[in-house]
Amino acid sequence: MASYQLPISGATCKGCARKISSALTAVPGVDDVQVDLEHQQAHVSGSSALSEAALQDAIAEAGYAPAEQHSDIPAADSHENPNADRSMQDISLNITGATCASCVRTIEQALRSTRGVKQAEMNFADRTARISGTANATTLIKAVEAAGYGASEMQPEDDGSEQEALEQAHYRQLLKHMWLGLGLGVPLMAWGLLGGDMMVRPGQPSQWIWLAIGLLTLGVLATAGRHFFIGAWKAFRNHNANMDTLIALGTGAAWLYSIVVVIVPGVLPEAARHVYFEASAMIIGLINLGQALEVRARGKTSAAVKRLLDLGAKTARVIRDGPNQQREELDIPVEQVQTGDHVRVRPGEKIAVDGEVQEGESRIDESMLTGEPMPVEKSVGDKVSAGTINQAGTLIYRATAVGKDTALSQIVALVKKAQGSKPPIGRLADQVSAVFVPTIMIIAVISALAWFNFGPEPRLTHMLISATTVLIIACPCALGLATPMSVMVGVGKAAEHGILIRQGEALQTSSKLDTIVLDKTGTITEGKPAVIAILCADGQQENTLLQLAASLENGSEHPLAMAVLREAERRDLTLSEATRFEAINGKGVTAIVNGQRYRLGNQRWLESEGINVSLSSDSLTQKGATPLFLASEGTLLGIIGVADRIKADSREAIARLREAGMKVIMITGDIQASADAIAAEAGVDEVMAEVLPEDKANKVKALQQQGRIVAMVGDGINDAPALAQADVGFAIGTGTDVAIESASITLMGGSLHGVADAMEISSATVRNIKQNLFGAFIYNSLGVPVAAGVLYPFTGSLLSPVIAGAAMSLSSVTVVTNANRLRLFKPHRDPS
Amino acid sequence: MTALINLAGLLLIALIISWFWLSQAGGRQRKQDATVSEASVIVKNGVYDPPTLHARAGQTLTLHFDRQDPSPCAEQVIFHGLGVSEFLDSGKVTTVTLQNPPKGEYRFTCQMQMYQGRLIVD
């Protein structure tokens, strides 16, 4: 008898102790192993022939050896790969089997002690390890495996192809199972239908044939139906019941009854000695077929996300400093681009990561993200987004966001998240689903008892058929899938049109809207106002007024201020320095220029400050311009008229909204007259003018108090409170900025058609959900009673469990297929 | 005989009600040992393992869902009442982060609610 005390390293949890213990126990001659986590030691006792080296090797192979012993394992491997790539590189691995923080240390230690590894870090959160050095991926994977964990090289970009391959494999397996089930079930059923004897006659050779068929059916249940039985058992142990429970119970009951008939026919009345092996096999075959069809149909529901993922470029041409301080251009995988890299994009190529243009001019097609068909001009300082296409000209841009931080990735994440949310309409189905399976089991028992007590002979057969058919026909899947499938397709469809729906709830509310409040600036209008006229008070000059106004507004990013500044720049005016600047929200600005206080703002504010507004702004307001009144101390100096053109398609889109039965209201801080002029041009129903920004939310609230279901459409920043107050808030024209939290729907394009599109898609989706829910509820509430035999008095027969199996497997496919119809939906952009 | 079969049927109904609705004892036994801020959940054979998770209120909970089940039913996990859902890639570990979930008991299920788990935040 010998005992050893061996040092270990990196073991801190019970899982590690188990691993060490099992590694040591596997060494021949070991009788007992105790792992002391506190002192990082393993105590081993066993036969005197035990070799300490063998025990140390076992610890090393488990990945818990002190560093000096551990390093041999991967190093040996590196000799096996003499042709390994010796250049420095970054490799990312997916790690499996890591369950605690100490596993991370063990894995990192294993990687770091591998020859050629310069740096290795593992991210426990996403179970990945990043390694820099000259070691190749195979060596690294072996090192991780030697440490007792699993590893695989991370693909450059998860474009879904791996998932597709897994789905395909699952699909093929389901088809194989279907053939197994139907291969046995169809001939048996044909035999029965063609008048073959399905009864067991004791003592006759047919009894042996039925026994053989019974065993074959058991084989089918154990192979093609195995996953149903395992799923049912696991769920049962957790006090849960699921679809597998129903299938396993239904097919299991049919088989069990039949095998009792075959083995001990004497215990049953003669009329009840019917076998139902064909039902078990057919149901298993048909449900596998249904699931295979569902896998196929489901693949299409996530097509929108796949398309978005496909937008990403695979490589990027980065400009980096070469060894001789010369700039060189390298084509590298897109995931290796780092923030700050300069990237060249040539005509026709995709923008690889988000960035800011440093050199060149071009047009970029952003339609795939924003839904806007017109290419956008880009020059130095403009932002470009990953996934968009450079049309003409070459650009060099600096990477500002890469990987998960790009707008495209955020859009994909947002769409995926929204696809998983449920509108309230699905709640009833959720509540029913939660109690569905046990309820069906109870109905099956009640049905069996009813047939036993009140049914005609053969009562036992009727009991079995009715209970089995109830279990098999009930389809919780159709109910559970009704809402999420439609939401998935609807949200994806919206994303294809540049509409990002954040929550399933917004989908449902959008379909019920009756009032739309549109902010004027940037929503109905271009949001880029320009100075169209300057009215001077006596003794004043246009340029002096403009110079003062621009000096006051210098540095402001308000659209009206920008218009004044642009005009001053156009006229080459030199601005004066303004001090003690103050912006009064919704009123104007004031500052000291050349030692004198000036005010620039609306008429009401100036009048409240005691300034006599002697000039009339009517000529400006009639043109839809916003008058900016400029006053020095107590004297009005003049009025600057700033007008904002309405967007080319605003009128058409508003007409479309009105045709859909919406009341369209324009809300603006502008004075009534200029608001009226814009409103007339845009064709809205009502105008709310001279509304301070903070009052917009109150106006929305007032409309809601009138019982209206209100949408607010604005830029998402200035209108945030109103957007949040509205039943549905639309942030419009955000480009690829998707981080507009206040809005439940973000329109990346600037067109108001997006609002109408979003409403149409929402209505279509909700309609689709209703169809699905109706179908699923009707199917179950008609199917279950029919299966229980309520039609028996009229038809004289019970529904076959095989028909129930076919109906059940088709019901969920029908739901998914109906949801897929939404993919064909096209918004109705032509108001005629 | 008739009475026996009827009795058996009624007993079966009582068992169904008791096992699936009234008793969650088994689920409790199979929950993780202690309150955690991070846990792994295996998605396989129609169930989440462990089916019950305990977390502390006010702490961020990180869950690693290891989907080993290719069935499309398993493709999504939804935390009811928390507004959190995530698509789970087949054959991969997907991390779901719950930011400071409030005190309460939440169900987490697949889309069709066939996979069922419970998150107890206390």
Q: What oligomeric state is this? A: heterodimer
Uncertain runs of chain B: 25-33
The helix-strand sequence of chain B is HHEEEEEEEEE
What is the count of β-strands of chain B? 9
Distance between the termini of chain B: 51 Å
Largest sheet of chain A: 7 strands, mixed
Organism (chain B): Alcanivorax nanhaiticus
Domain EfeO-type cupredoxin-like (chain B): 13-121
Pfam families (chain B): Cupredoxin_1
InterPro entries (chain B): Cupredoxin, EfeO_Cupredoxin
Give the secondary structure arrangement, pairings included.
The complex is a heterodimer of chains A (832) and B (122).
Chain A: E1 2-7, H1 14-25, E2 30-36, E3 41-46, H2 52-62, H3 67-70, H4 72-80, E4 89-96, H5 101-112, E5 117-123, E6 128-133, H6 137-146, E7 150-153, H7 161-193, H8 205-223, H9 226-237, H10 243-263, H11 277-301, H12 303-310, E8 315-321, E9 327-333, E10 342-345, E11 354-359, E12 362-365, H13 367-370, E13 376-378, E14 383-384, E15 389-392, E16 395-401, H14 407-419, H15 427-454, H16 459-473, H17 476-496, E17 499-501, H18 504-510, E18 515-519, H19 520-524, E19 530-536, H20 542-553, H21 559-570, E20 578-584, E21 588-593, E22 596-601, H22 603-608, H23 618-621, E23 626-632, E24 635-643, H24 650-659, E25 663-667, H25 672-682, E26 686-688, H26 693-705, E27 710-714, H27 720-725, E28 728-732, E29 745-747, H28 753-788, H29 792-795, H30 801-820
Parallel strand pairs in A: 18-25, 18-27, 25-26, 27-28, 28-29
Antiparallel strand pairs in A: 1-3, 2-3, 4-6, 4-7, 5-6, 8-9, 8-10, 10-16, 11-14, 11-16, 12-13, 12-15, 17-29, 19-24, 20-21, 21-22, 22-23, 23-24
Helix pairs in contact in A: 1-2, 4-6, 7-8, 7-11, 8-10, 8-11, 9-10, 10-11, 10-16, 11-30, 12-17, 14-17, 15-16, 15-17, 16-28, 16-30, 17-28, 17-30, 18-28, 20-21, 28-30
Chain B: H1 2-22, H2 25-29, E1 38-44, E2 47-49, E3 52-55, E4 61-67, E5 76-79, E6 84-87, E7 93-98, E8 104-109, E9 116-121
Parallel strand pairs in B: 1-4, 3-9
Antiparallel strand pairs in B: 1-2, 4-7, 5-6, 5-8, 8-9
InterPro entries (chain B): Cupredoxin (IPR008972), EfeO_Cupredoxin (IPR028096)
Pfam families (chain B): Cupredoxin_1
Protein name (chain B): EfeO-type cupredoxin-like domain-containing protein
